């Protein structure tokens, strides 16, 4: 059976599949991109493109963190609430509690990281599924947001703070730079560092990783903490861009974020995927939302379309796995 | 045994992308016989049975079942037509009762919607009586041990009126006594005209229970013989394709100073007051029935499961081991029982798997030094003779023996010197087993020590310097190499004399 030539061709086959894995999503993105361009002339306008990628960045930075958590086989539903809570804290420091730029940036990031840490800590030490822990957190911090804000949005940020979400570096919006920075750093971390490789090992086989001497719980908690931190960053960007800490900020983000990761080819079973796929996934979601907007489709339809895309993406992953084991 | 073949394979061929798993296989299985199917891993046994049972589709050739060409598209269809297979991983639903599991998929119903519990229970009880086993059909399957689960699987196949029953390594996880019962059941089935296809790596069993044997190698049919007409040496030669000089290539070694001492180790309800020591350069065998606490002992020493009482000394100093990482830092390595579940990340490459325990050692500030890692991994692949097309091959595509070598290679690379082996050769073919034994010998030469848990008595007897026997979480005896016999081990492991039963 193991004739060398045939093993070679098996490898070629596998390589083809990996190749298709990456290019398939890119192709889908290009098709959608060109399609919307053809349907609505405004779509290709530079201002619109800038708008899309700025919008994508807010979801995207969270999706980078979510990639780590999903690679580990976990999930986090609380990201949208973390965005709202950290946003309202940032707005509070800007408007109500002394107006320090430093505190209005650092405190929300630390709080985001802290909530993420709690998500990881409770789910690993308590041996609970992160689905239920983060579902609880989602409610807790939505409530906490309303409590802190006393039911009213907090508006009126300083110009310096506004730079985070609305500033430009040359022709490029600052949030886009933050997002791409996160993607590149995360890509390097996943590929080249011990932390990154252990994330794949744990997601691929937690027991084997544990028996190989990997401190599994520590890595899980770290990944959740990272995701919380990046959700806090997203909260800063959103609050800055809206010039207001909004009560409903981040609502429904968990779907967009998880969709970006899954469409990007990261498996919900863990152990497979990466952050470059997530980049394309986030862009695809952003372009679909924007394109449908421009076409004048009711926002309700967008939710339906996104849901369909997510289910489709998971189905594709499933098929890929079945194909491989056959 | 009548002369009409119940199953006949004619030039059966199966091609996977890049692999020819079956290459024109032609042979017959007679009605009512127990037919052994042997061969090394990758010989095509699994592929063959998966085609018969409709899991895979054949590429070319024909299968005749009771004289008619068949081509099942699913295991369900095969079952409906009278061919059932029992794999090592059972297909049972733990939360349901024995009776429900037996009639899963063809529940008896009254008035179309309601489960006819009475009839189901009665028929299940009848099957149990027929098989002559004592299992309460109202029990939940999750409360049964491995052996009884297997009986439920057999009953399930019978409830479908299976005329051919395929058993894949049915004794791999059974204790000696349970094997006896299984063989008795097989004889009952045979007397009822059920044909059995029996797959096993334990060649001794084939002589005990089988009528004929078919050898496959590299996807080709090598021979089909009467078991009486073929010696074990012949079988092995046909399987491996060359002479195997020794099945257990043990070299004698002199034990040095004590490297590991366990004192009064207790894990409530699981392990009780266990003490032993391990010396440099020796193999300490641990025998006992499945469930006697052998695996749990290794896991406790390795820091996977917490211990309630007791001390562990490494090279004379007390060691506090709270996690596998602590154990590894003390030079202890665990080679777990089920490679695929506990030992390997199947999705990752050979390189990544070999790197698991050593990444921190080959990185600077968290960044992996790719060159160093690859050099070490390459070295291991050569040293361990791991057959892989490249370092980047996913381990899921390697054979069982090569996977085991990757697990071992991980620890070689980490320079561990106390090795805890849990069933080191389970599910590995004869040729690869010998290689694993050679590697164990090499470990000892390098000054390492080995604790080996094994259910295969010939292996324990041949490879160990001393043997501990466990029963119900305790060490019930220690045998020197000279004292150790199959009977002595079984007597200790079973505890009561009347339960003692030797096989072959």
UniProtKB/TrEMBL annotation, chain A:
It comes from the Bacteria. Pfam families: BPD_transp_2. InterPro entries: ABC_transp_permease. GO terms for molecular function: transmembrane transporter activity. The chain crosses the membrane at residues 23-44, 56-89, 101-122, 128-149, 161-190, 275-294, 300-316. One of its GO terms (cellular component) is plasma membrane. Keywords: Cell membrane, Membrane, Transmembrane, Transmembrane helix. It is a multi-pass membrane protein. Its main location: membrane. It is found in: Cell membrane. PANTHER family: ABC TRANSPORTER PERMEASE PROTEIN YPHD-RELATED-RELATED (PTHR32196), RIBOSE IMPORT PERMEASE PROTEIN RBSC (PTHR32196:SF72). This is ABC transporter permease. It comes from Candidatus Caldatribacterium californiense.
Automatic annotation (TrEMBL), chain B:
SMART domains: AAA. It holds the Pfam family ABC_tran. It is found in: Cell inner membrane; Cell membrane. One of its GO terms (biological process) is monosaccharide transmembrane transport. Residues 7-243, 254-497 form the ABC transporter domain. Its main location: membrane. It is a peripheral membrane protein. PROSITE patterns: ABC_TRANSPORTER_1, ABC_TRANSPORTER_2. Keywords: ATP-binding, Cell membrane, Membrane, Nucleotide-binding, Repeat, Sugar transport, Translocase, Transport. Coiled coil: none annotated. One of its GO terms (molecular function) is ATP hydrolysis activity. GO terms for cellular component: plasma membrane. This is Sugar ABC transporter ATP-binding protein.
């Amino acid at each position: 059976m193991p004739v060398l030539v045939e093993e070679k061709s098996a490898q070629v086959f596998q390589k083809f599949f990996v190749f298709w894995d990456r290019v398939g999503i890119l192709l889908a993105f290009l098709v959608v991109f060109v399609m919307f361009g053809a349907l609505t002339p405004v779509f290709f306008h530079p201002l619109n493109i800038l708008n899309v990628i700025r919008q994508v960045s807010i979801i995207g930075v969270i999706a980078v963190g979510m990639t780590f958590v999903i690679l580990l086989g976990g999930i986090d539903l609380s990201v949208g609430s973390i965005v709202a809570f950290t946003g309202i804290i940032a707005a509070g420091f800007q408007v109500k509690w002394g107006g320090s730029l430093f505190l209005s940036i650092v405190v929300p990031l630390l709080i985001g990281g802290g909530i993420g840490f709690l998500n990881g800590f409770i789910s690993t030490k308590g041996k609970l599924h992160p689905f239920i822990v983060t579902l609880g957190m989602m409610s807790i911090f939505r409530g906490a947001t309303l409590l802190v804000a006393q039911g009213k949005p907090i508006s009126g940020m300083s110009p310096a703070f506004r730079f985070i979400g609305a500033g430009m570096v040359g022709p490029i919006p600052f949030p886009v730079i933050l997002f791409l920075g996160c993607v590149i750093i995360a890509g390097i971390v996943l590929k080249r560092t011990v932390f990154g490789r252990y994330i794949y090992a744990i997601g691929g086989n937690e027991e084997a990783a544990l028996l190989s001497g990997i401190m599994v719980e520590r890595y899980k908690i770290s990944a959740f903490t990272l995701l919380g931190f990046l959700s806090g960053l997203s909260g800063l960007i959103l609050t800055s861009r809206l010039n207001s800490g909004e009560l409903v900020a981040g609502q429904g983000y968990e779907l967009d974020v998880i969709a970006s990761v899954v469409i990007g080819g990261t498996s919900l079973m863990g152990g497979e995927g990466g952050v470059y796929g997530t980049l394309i996934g986030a862009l695809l979601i952003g372009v679909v939302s924007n394109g449908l907007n421009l076409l004048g489709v009711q926002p309700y339809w967008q939710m339906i379309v996104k849901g369909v895309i997510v289910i489709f993406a998971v189905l594709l992953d499933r098929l890929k796995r079945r194909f491989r084991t056959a | 045994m009548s002369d009409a073949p119940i199953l006949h394979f004619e030039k059966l061929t199966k091609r996977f992308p890049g692999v020819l798993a079956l290459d024109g296989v032609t042979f017959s299985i007679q009605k009512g016989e127990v037919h052994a199917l042997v061969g090394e891993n990758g010989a095509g046994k699994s592929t063959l049975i998966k085609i018969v049972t409709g899991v895979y589709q054949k590429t070319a050739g024909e299968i005749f079942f009771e004289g008619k060409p068949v081509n099942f598209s699913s295991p369900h269809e095969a079952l409906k037509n009278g061919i059932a297979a029992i794999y090592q991983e059972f297909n049972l639903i733990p939360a349901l009762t024995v009776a429900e599991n037996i009639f899963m998929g063809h529940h008896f119903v009254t008035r179309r919607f309601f489960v006819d519990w009475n009839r189901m229970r009665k028929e299940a009880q009848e099957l149990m009586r027929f098989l002559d086993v004592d299992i309460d059909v109202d029990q939940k399957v999750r409360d049964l041990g491995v052996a009884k689960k297997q009986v439920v699987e057999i009953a399930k196949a019978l409830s479908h009126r299976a005329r051919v029953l395929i058993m894949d390594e049915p004794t791999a996880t059974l204790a000696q006594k349970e094997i006896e019962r299984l063989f008795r059941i097989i004889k009952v089935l045979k007397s009822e005209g059920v044909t059995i296809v029996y797959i096993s790596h334990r060649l001794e069993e084939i002589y005990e229970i089988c009528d004929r044997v078919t050898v496959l190698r590299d996807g080709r049919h090598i021979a089909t013989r009467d078991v009486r007409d073929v010696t074990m040496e012949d079988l092995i030669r046909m399987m491996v394709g060359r002479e195997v000089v020794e099945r257990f290539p043990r070299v004698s070694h002199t034990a040095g100073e004590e490297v590991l001492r366990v004192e009064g180790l207790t894990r409530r309800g699981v392990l009780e007051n266990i003490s032993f020591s391990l010396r440099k350069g020796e193999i300490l065998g641990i025998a006992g029935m499945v469930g006697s606490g052998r695996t749990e002992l290794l896991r406790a020493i390795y820091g996977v499961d917490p211990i309630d009482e007791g001390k562990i000394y490494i090279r004379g100093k007390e060691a506090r081991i709270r996690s596998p990482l602590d154990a590894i830092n003390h030079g202890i390595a665990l080679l777990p029982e089920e490679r695929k579940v506990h030992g390997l990340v199947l999705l990752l490459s050979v390189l990544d798997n070999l790197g698991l325990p050593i990444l921190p050692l080959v990185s600077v500030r968290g960044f992996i030094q790719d060159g160093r890692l690859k050099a070490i991994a390459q070295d291991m692949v050569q040293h361990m003779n791991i057959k892989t097309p490249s370092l980047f091959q996913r381990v899921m595509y390697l054979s069982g023996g090569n996977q085991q070598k990757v697990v071992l290679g991980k620890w070689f690379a980490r320079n561990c010197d106390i090795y805890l082996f849990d069933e080191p050769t389970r599910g590995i073919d004869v040729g690869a087993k010998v290689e694993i034994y050679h590697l164990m010998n090499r470990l000892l030469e390098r000054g390492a020590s080995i604790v080996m848990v094994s259910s295969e008595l010939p292996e324990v007897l041949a490879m160990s310097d001393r043997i501990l026997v466990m029963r119900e979480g305790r060490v019930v005896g220690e045998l020197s190499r000279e004292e150790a016999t199959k009977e002595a081990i079984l007597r200790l492991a079973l505890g009561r004399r009347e339960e003692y039963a030797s096989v072959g």
